[in-house]
Amino acid sequence: METLSQLVEWWHWVVLGIALVAAEIVIPSFIVIWFGIAAIVVGAVDYLFGTGFTTELFLWSGLSAVLLILYWKYFKKAEKLSSIGQSEGEYAGIRGIVLEDLGEGRYRARFDLPVLGDRVWVVETEHGEKLSEGEAVYVDRVYGQILKVRKGD
User: Fold this and answer.
1) Prediction pTM value
2) In 3D, which of 23, 139, 9 has the Cα closest to residue 149?
3) Among 18, 38, 68, 88, who pairs with 63 as Cys (CB 3.0-4.6 Å)?
């Protein structure tokens, strides 16, 4: 009877790693990729040195943990907490100019910097104040597909 160490070969780790890296496309968390990279490295180590399954499992776990820690510490952008929320906190206070009145208290505005990847947004004020074309506005918060703004100076 074969042991688990004899059943799991180096290329199994490489296939697992490629599958995990590819799974990142379906699971866009940027977490699974690190487990995949670790599995590919373990496959390479097993190919070069012929390690046992217990060593491979320990190496995969440790390397995955190290890669995740490095990602969180050095690469992941610190999320800001504010009244807007965690991921949109960086957009508070960005200046824009009202381009047109869309009616029903909504306006189209163009911002100096991209807000969530776009410079032109449908905006409305928090308290239904009237805005005019060319007037400066500032982002207060993101509300779905609409930016809540306040009048500028």
Assistant:
1) 0.52
2) 139
3) 38
pLDDT in tens, 25-64: 888 778 999 999 999 999 999 999 999 999 999 999 999 9
Average pLDDT over every residue of 70-87:
59
Listed residue (21, 107, 25, 123) closest to 67, CA to CA: 21
* CA–CA distance, 126 with 120 (Å, rounded to integer): 19
From the number of C-beta atoms within 10 Å of its C-beta (0-12, 13-18, 19+), residue 52 rates as: middle
Angle at CA of residue 93, ends 88 and 99, nearest 5°: 100
Strands 146-151 and 118-125: parallel
* Burial annotation 129-153 (CB, 10 A radius, 16+ → b, else e): eebeeeebbbbbbbeeeebbbeeee
Contacts 24+ apart (CB under 8 A), 129-132: 131/98, 131/101, 131/107, 132/98, 132/101
